[in-house]
Amino acid sequence: MLFLRLLIFVIVALGVVIYLTAIKLRAEFYNAGDKHFEFKDFYKNPPTDYAASLVRLIKKLTLGLIAAVVVFCLILAWVAFVQT
Length: 84
Fold this sequence. Notes:
The two termini are 18 Å apart. The model has no long low-confidence stretch (mean pLDDT 90). The radius of gyration is 18 Å and the shape is elongated. The protein is mainly α and 84 residues long. It has helices at residues 2-32, 39-44, 49-83.
């Protein structure tokens, strides 16, 4: 049970960190000041090293979040299987 609580905390923490990093990336997009770029183009080809590092961080954290959710679902399925 402690592991499930810890996993829920990790999922929430990763979600918050991804959200805050995305806000920083969006602010970097607005600070770039180029109005003919869309955010999708900015995300695929960031003009600064800082924006590129934020994009890499978001991708890594998203993979971690997906893995944590999959582990959580597998644990719930295992618990349901053991209970029956």
